[in-house]
Amino acid sequence: MFDRRKFIKKSAVWSGYALAAVAIGLPVFSFVGFRKITKKKIAFPPDSQLAPVNFKEGVYLLSHKDEFYALSARCPHLGCTVNFDAVSKTFKCPCHGSAFDLLGKWISGPARKNLQPLPIKKNSNGDIETVLKI
Ligand code: FES
Q1: Is residue 92 in contact with ligand 1, taking CB distance under 6 Å?
Q2: For the residues 84-113, what does the mean pLDDT come to?
Q3: From residue 105, how far is each of 17, 90, 109 by CA, in Å?
Q4: Selected catalytic residue, list 77, 84, 98, 118
Q5: pTM score above 0.90
Q6: Which among 79, 103, 122, 130 has the fewest CB atoms less than 10 Å away?
Q7: How much distance in Å is there from the Cα of 21 to the middle of ligand 1?
Q8: Environment class of residue 60 by beta-carbon count within 10 Å: exposed (0-12), middle (13-18) or buried (19+)?
């Protein structure tokens, strides 16, 4: 026989569970699954005005044998910004100590991946542009 009290009590309990699942799940899904990736254009001045190692807004632009290349400064471990050490000519992550060579190849530390290379092109002003995905 249908018991209205039991039904209302169970409905209240299951509504609470559903509410808790939404309250916990929504922030987790929004962080993990639904992050919007935006692209940011970063322009460096023409190559004649650049140093061998240049940094701007999370991007390193470096020259090697008169060729420029760009690397993301985002550490592949947990996303800290790596610093360039001019003495050892390596990139070092201040967070957990990963190190990368001048071409962005992983040397040591917990990152175990290379720094992300970024495409570059010259725009009509002669500036060197790259696109960083955030
Ligand atoms: S974030 Fe760079 S080593 Fe952990």
Answers
A1: no
A2: 97
A3: 48, 10, 12
A4: 77
A5: no
A6: 79
A7: 32
A8: buried
Selected from 2.70.70.10, 3.40.50.1820, 2.102.10.10, 2.60.120.260, the CATH number assigned to the domain covering 39-133 reads: 2.102.10.10
- Check if the beta carbon of residue 131 is closer than 8 Å to that of residue 123: no
96 has catalytic annotation = yes
Predicted local distance difference test score (pLDDT) of residue 37: 81
Copy the structure tokens of residue 53. Answer: 């190692």
Partners of residue 108 on adjacent β-strands: 99
| Beta strand extents in 1-127 (DSSP E only) | 39-44, 53-56, 59-64, 67-72, 83-85, 90-92, 99-100, 106-108, 117-118, 120-122
